[in-house]
């Protein structure tokens, strides 16, 4: 008999939320241990010497890195079909994750780190809109309608991207007075995609909440 899975999580961390969403989606039984990223316990270095979350404990083995964990969960529960069987579709999902992670997400964090700089907001709006334009094309290549990356089917692409969509939405809403990004408002596909992620039960259930997230961001980035 195998031990129950244990997820070392931090509610404020988008990478940890990826693993949390995946476990919820497959209906896994697991224990949750929350780690305070601003005050990490000394014992946590024995779980992950790099002191990062998430970590998934599997029969005594500590598996790190969010997408490694999510892929493991998919392999452990193949009947849940988080990745389609078609090799091209699988590759397209991985490309979408890589694109969002390397083009969209960095613009968000760059803005937070330079929020007090001159033209920070204007640069953020310009750059993130440009990055989202290509992502919108990737969505339309998969399906003319949503609500998810593949259309009606929720997949690893959505698990990987949803935590960052929630955080961008929260910061735009609270710190930028309800900013509506032009690329989003002009694309029904992108609008539907974001709405689909914001209302997915597994994503909502693992979301820390707008107020707590923004409070953490203010401390983390000295906003």
From TrEMBL:
The GST C-terminal domain is annotated at: 86-221
- Recorded superkingdom: Eukaryota
Q: Which residues form a coiled coil?
A: 114-141
Which keywords does the record carry? Answer: Coiled coil, Oxidoreductase, Transferase
Query: Which protein, by its recorded name, is this?
Result: Glutathione S-transferase omega-2
A molecular-function term among this protein's GO annotations = glutathione dehydrogenase (ascorbate) activity
Source species, please?
Choanephora cucurbitarum
Q: PANTHER family given for it?
A: GLUTATHIONE S-TRANSFERASE OMEGA, PTHR43968
List each copy of the GST N-terminal domain by range. 3-81
PROSITE patterns associated with the record: GLUTAREDOXIN_2 (PS51354), GST_CTER (PS50405), GST_NTER (PS50404)
Does the record's keyword annotation contain Repeat? no
One annotated Gene Ontology cellular component of this protein? cytoplasm
Q: Key word Oxidoreductase present in the record?
A: yes
């Amino acid at each position: 008999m195998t031990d129950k899975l244990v997820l070392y999580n931090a509610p404020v961390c988008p990478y940890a939320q990826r693993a949390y969403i995946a476990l919820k989606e497959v209906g896994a039984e697991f224990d949750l241990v929350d780690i305070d990223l601003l005050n990490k316990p000394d014992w946590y270095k024995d779980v992950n010497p790099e002191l990062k979350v998430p970590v998934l404990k599997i029969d005594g083995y500590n598996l790190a890195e969010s997408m490694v964990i999510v892929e493991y969960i998919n392999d452990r529960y193949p009947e849940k079909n988080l990745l389609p069987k078609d090799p091209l579709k699988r590759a397209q999902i991985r490309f979408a994750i890589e694109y969002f992670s390397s083009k969209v997400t960095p613009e968000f964090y760059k803005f937070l780190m330079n929020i007090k700089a001159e033209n920070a907001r204007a640069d953020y709006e310009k750059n993130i809109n440009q990055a989202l334009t290509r992502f919108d094309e990737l969505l339309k290549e998969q399906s003319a309608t949503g609500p998810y990356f593949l259309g009606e089917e929720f997949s690893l692409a959505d698990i990987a991207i949803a935590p960052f969509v929630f955080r961008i939405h929260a910061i735009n809403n609270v710190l930028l007075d309800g900013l509506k990004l032009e690329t989003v408002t002009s694309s029904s596909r992108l609008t539907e995609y974001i709405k689909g992620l914001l209302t997915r039960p597994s994503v909502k259930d693992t979301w820390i909440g707008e107020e707590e997230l923004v409070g953490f961001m203010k401390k983390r980035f000295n906003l």
